[in-house]
Amino acid sequence: MPHINAMTKHMPPQCLALSIIKTLDGACALGNVFRRHGRYKQAMKWFGRALAGYGKALGVDHPDTLGTVHNMATVFDRQGQYVKALEWYGRALTGREKALGVDHPDTLTTVNTMAIVFHRQGQYEKALEWYKRALAGREKALGVEHTDTLTTVHTMAIVFARQGQYEKALKWYERALAGTEKTLGVDHPDTLGTVNNMAIVFDRQGQHEKALEWYERALAGREKALGVDHPDTLHAVHTMASVFENQGQYSKALEWYERALAGREKALGVDHPDTLQTVHNMALVFDNQGQYEKAQEGYERALTGREKALGVHHPRTQNTLRCLVNLHQNAGQTSQAQSLQARLYASKSPHN
Predict the structure, then answer these.
(1) Is 294 helix (H, G, I), strand (E, B) or coil?
(2) What interhelical angle do 334-346 and 315-330 show, nearest 10?
(3) By CB neighbour count within 10 A (0-12 exposed, 13-18 middle, 19+ buried), where does 132 fall?
(4) What DSSP state is assigned to residue 1?
């Protein structure tokens, strides 16, 4: 960059070094802005510049360099490129353990985010292993009521719920809820996230009225704190729909799913995993109503998107494929069902 070279040509070495670091900090900050707004290509461009500069000016094992490596991993993570994300998180973790120590908060952040990736891949036992490591470190380094510690408690509860261990999930959610209410307040987004997830567990246990009560609490709080189009608010809308679905109130369920779908397509994109979850659930409702053409259309959209975003081995991808198999079997379309069944068998992987 010629204009920068001209400005820095006659600077004393200390001033020049400080100027370069400030420039790199600015590049990293821009990367974070683009990442928050979902503009991942631009985020990677600025993180890449920062990484190259930090590595040259400070060294590859400097905390600022490693922080940029971690940030680049988060972009791959948000794009659903989980294998690449783990590779970059692993690089950040190795460096942070060496430079900062195994119990440093930044090291533990990388441990926790690696757990999240395993979680998203459906590798629940591996996710729990990494969450437990993050939790032990955070309790020791930060305390049991620190927000980072409570976040790990909350995400462990999510894994237990995904595994169908509902009582265990509620126990961990209750710990997270008590902590966030005390530390952050009853209307904080983190508190409301735990409220919403507890509602999900009540729903899966068949306690539908209790689930609706907790969903309504989460939704009201999120609309007030975050706005009607925020992804967390839309998650509450989606889960409200799921309760009506489980109660057999299909028209009401579709009304709420349509609201969630419109919001998620706008806020997250048409191929985001959360958007595809709403598409899948709407297909289930159409299936239960006997609207088989609409159900097939929805399943196929969800399957195509999930194979791309999550991979063929992910439990959610396989669930959609299984629903399509059943749809064709029930319609007497044997050849289509057999073809999809073969795809399902081929997609099996060791962690499912």
Answers:
(1) helix
(2) 160
(3) middle
(4) -
Do residues 85 and 73 make contact, with C-beta atoms less than 8 angstroms apart? yes
Q: What is the pTM of this model?
A: 0.67
Residue 331 has a CB neighbour count (10 Å cut-off) of 12
Give the span between the Cα atoms of 110 and 88, in whole angstroms: 10
Long-range CB contacts for residues 328-332, cutoff 8 Å, separation at least 24: 331/292
* Interacting residues of 99 by C-beta distance below 8 A, sequence separation 6+: 61, 62, 63, 66
List the single range of 26-40, 95-109, 283-297, 314-328 with lowest mean pLDDT.
26-40
Residue found under tokens 């707004």: 37
Among 332, 324, 328, smallest CA distance to 306 is for 324
Instruction: Give yes or no for residue 3 having a pLDDT over 60.
Output: no
248 φ/ψ angles, rounded to the nearest 5 degrees: 85, 10
Distance CA 105, CA 141 (A): 7
Q: Is residue 278 within 8 Å of 260, Cβ to Cβ?
A: yes
What distance in Å separates the CA atoms of residue 37 and residue 46, rounded to the nearest whole number?
A: 14
306, 316 Cβ separation under 8 angstroms: yes
Counting Cβ atoms within 10 Å, is residue 256 exposed (0-12), middle (13-18) or buried (19+)? Answer: buried
How far is the C-alpha of 74 from the C-alpha of 215, rounded, in Å?
29
**Residue 94 CA: distances (Å) to CA of 102, 128, 129, 226:** 9, 20, 18, 36
d(CA 284, CA 242): 10
**Alpha carbon 88 to its chain's center:** 17
